[in-house]
Design goal:
The chain is built from 9 helices and 5 strands, in the order αααββαβααββααα. It is mainly α and about 260 residues long.
Length: about 260
Amino acid sequence: MATEASSLANLYQDQDDIAKCFGHIVYNIINNSIDFDVVDFEAHDLYLSESYCLLWQNAETGEVDGRKVGLPLKIGVLAALFIDLYASGLIKVFMHPEDDEPMFRLTETHSTETFLDFAIFDSLRVANAQGRLREAKLWKWLLRAEDADCVENTFDSLIARGILKEKSSGLLGLFKKFPTVNPEPERTLEKKIKDIAFNDLKPDSYMLSLLILSRESDRIFMCEDPILRKHFTSAEYKEAKKTLDKILLGRLSLY
C-alpha cells in the first residue's frame, strides 16, 4: 500500500494526484510485487477490471455509486485494465532512470478479439498508428478515465457474460442500475477475499492486484469505503481491513 505521505486520503480532490498515484500503483504491482506472475491471471474467469467493477457494484440494489461522476473509481477501473493489458502481453510498463513517472508502450498492435479491444486497446492501437504512442506517461492516460468508455464497456462485458443486467430509468433512461443475474462470480470473489483476510490464504498475483486497487480506491474517500466495505459484515470489516493491509504491505513496497 502507499505510505502515509503518498496516501490518497488527503489527495482525493486533486485528479492529477490521483492519476499519478494509481500510475505508480500499477507500475509497482507489475514490477515490485513479490512473485508477481501473469500466469495467475489465466486461472481466473474474469478480467481484473471486470472483478473490480463487480466488487464496485452493489449486488443488493444494482447500484454503482459514482459511475457517472466518480472519477477516482473510474481511474481504478482503467488502472485494472492496464494490468489486464500487461498480463495479456500487450504493453510494457517501465520507468526511465531520469524520470519519476511510470511509462508504457505497446508490445502488440494486432486486435485481440477480446473484451480488451473495445474496453481500451483499440484506442491505444489508434493512437499508436497515428504516431502518438511510441511511449506515454501512464498517469496521463489514467486521467482520461473521465471521458473514456472503459467503465461502461466493462459493465457491458459483465452483462454479456450473463452476470449482470442493465435496468434504465428516469428521463431518456439516463439512470442505470446493474442488478445481479448470476451471483456466483461475486460470491467466489468474496470467498477468496475472506479466505485471504481470515484463513491465511496466500493471494495469487491476480487477487493481490485486485485487493491493492480496491484498498487504494477505498482510501480516497474519507467517510466510506465504496469497494470492499459492502462485502463484509460490520463485525468483520474492521479486522479484515487491518489484516488485508498487513498482507498487502508484506507483498508490495510502493514507494
